[in-house]
Amino acid sequence: MKRAAILLFHPKPEKFITGAYIKIGFFETNTDLRFHDEVRGNLFEQIEKTTELLFTKYIKAMISYEHIYRVETFEYPKEVVREALLNAISHKDYASGYPIQISVYSDKIMIWNEGTLPENWTVERLLSKHPSKPYNPDIANVFFRSGYVEAWGRGIEKITTQCVEAGLPVPLFNVEGNDFWTIFRKDRYNEQSLKELGLNERQIKAVLYVKDRGKITNGEYQTINETTTKTSFRDLEELLILNILKKVGENKGTYYELFDVR
């Protein structure tokens, strides 16, 4: 019996394959773990249970109403997180003995799996048009036959596109040796988050202006806030120190952009 068959269909694959499960933890900081869970069962069960657990316990939803109907908008699109989870399972090295690990923070989600890219591939290649070369072709093929994934190597592209459409920063994909990380980041540039950082109303208005228009000058800052040159310089300097805005150019050509690449 192949290892893929055990992982996909045996009720307790860990009986034969060490580390064949998923760990989830919520961290305040890298060293401050608040709570955690372990998801076990075959790979189909792991996908469904992990997705449900993330979106009921770990990921917040904003509540709004359309007429009499309640609408939940999660911090991260469910399809994006599920796609990343499927990628981690399909590309994990199950001989390593380590579980997939999902670290949830207040401002990001980090998904780690042991695995390597195809020979001579780079992250840049992964982000561009590429063929489908899963580390575990038997597992990926079953997921395809079951309708869980496509078979065209578009997973990373779909994740990136849907994050941008949802107003989130472009996710990060890091490969270090046998470590593969997928990192989702929250949108820092919304009114509630900016208020929590202690920004004043002028600064919040300016950041949202940059988010909408791409950049702002000192003169524009003064105009939209009806304030003085001295106040605008002080406000902008604080935004630079907080790594919310970054300065581009010099002298009269100076303008400010969002610090994070989106």
How is this fold's topology laid out?
Elements: H1 3-9, E1 22-29, E2 32-39, H2 43-58, E3 61-66, E4 69-74, H3 78-91, E5 100-104, E6 108-114, H4 123-127, H5 137-145, H6 155-165, E7 172-176, E8 179-185, H7 191-196, H8 201-213, H9 218-225, H10 229-241, E9 245-248, E10 255-258
Parallel strand pairs: 1-5
Antiparallel strand pairs: 1-2, 3-4, 5-6, 6-8, 7-8, 9-10
Helix pairs in contact: 2-3, 3-6, 9-10
What characteristics describe this protein?
elongated; 262 residues; 6-stranded mixed β-sheet; 10 helices
Low-confidence parts: none
Instruction: Characterize the largest beta sheet: strand count, sense, and whether it forms a barrel.
Output: 6 strands, mixed
Distance linking N and C termini: 46 Å
The largest sheet has its strands arranged as 2-1-5-6-8-7
Write down the Rg. 22 Å
The ordered H/E elements are HEEHEEHEEHHHEEHHHHEE
Helix % is 25-40%
Structural class: alpha+beta
- SS field, number of helical segments: 10
What's the short story on this structure?
With 262 residues, the protein is of the alpha+beta class. Helix content is 39%, strand content 23%.
